[in-house]
# Entry
Amino acid sequence: MLVQKIIIDTDPGIDDAMAIHQAFADSRLEVVGLTTIFGNVYVDQATRNSLWLAEHGGYKCAVARGAERPISIEMNTPSFHVHGEQGFGEITEIIPVGTADPRPAHIYLSETIRANTGEIILCPIGPLSNIANLLDYDPEIINHIKKLVIMGGAVHALGNVTPYAEANFWNDPHAAEKVLEANWEIDLIGLDVTSNIQFSHDVFTQGAKNSPRIGGFIHDLSKFYINFYKRVVGKSVCLMHDPAAILAITDPDIFTFQKAPLSVILEGEKVGNSFVSENLERRPVNVAVYVDAKAAQRKFISIFSQADSAYKKRLNSQGNKKL
Ligand code: BDR
Ligand code: CA
# Structure
């Protein structure tokens, strides 16, 4: 079986934690590293949370701390109301034992992608500041990366922080614009599809039943997230933004994509809005416009149902038998 190497750039965050554990549990993926970014929490908390997630999952991967602010504007307040004060809802005992890679995220990304030239899919699921810094630091990186699969933007759908903008693009619109104008392959998994993947308690209960350690943790996290969405959409569900980006790597056939050059509005009332650009010199992005949400749910449940056995296998291969 071909195993796809990925690096996840993340601001954990409840749906980020779900996406990361999903990637850890899926044998079709090798998570080479996690790079961290502000967004749902401040970057130091995102780094602690990423280290802790890898340790909790018994997963050996690098964690590199990224930017603490956007590339041009002041930082917005983190989304504590969506993800909790420390990013994991009511869970606050997040004390990793390990430490981050000494390199800043953009240097870690440059060196790691070059060392695995043509093999790595970079999957940003937070604001795109680290990726913009990577392009500044190493413009030739576009020739070494396999592609980007980005959770962000709302091309035809309404935004979620304003009627126009999705949170990751809104938090650093200049970075999003820089990333979309670069000449590399991008699959964009925006609100056009992620808003349609709505999971109720039952989905998480099934994961918890079959995988008490990892699925149980995700189940506990989901309570805070569902409470937030209950106030927004009026039903007991949560929207699976970041897990959708991981699914787009492992199961692209459940999505429909349309090619379009994209641009981002940088100021004013519509700041952060992503729209189809008239600049035809810009490389078209593969924009996800449809997802089979039922198939997404089936895949998510099946991955989390075997998350604990994947965890045990990892521990055994590391010669550590405890669970
Ligand atoms: C995105 O914003 C964050 O709150 C989520 O983690 C996701 O990456 C959704 O707009
Ligand atoms: Ca995120």
Notes: Residues 214-233 form the longest helix (20 residues). The longest strand covers residues 29-36.
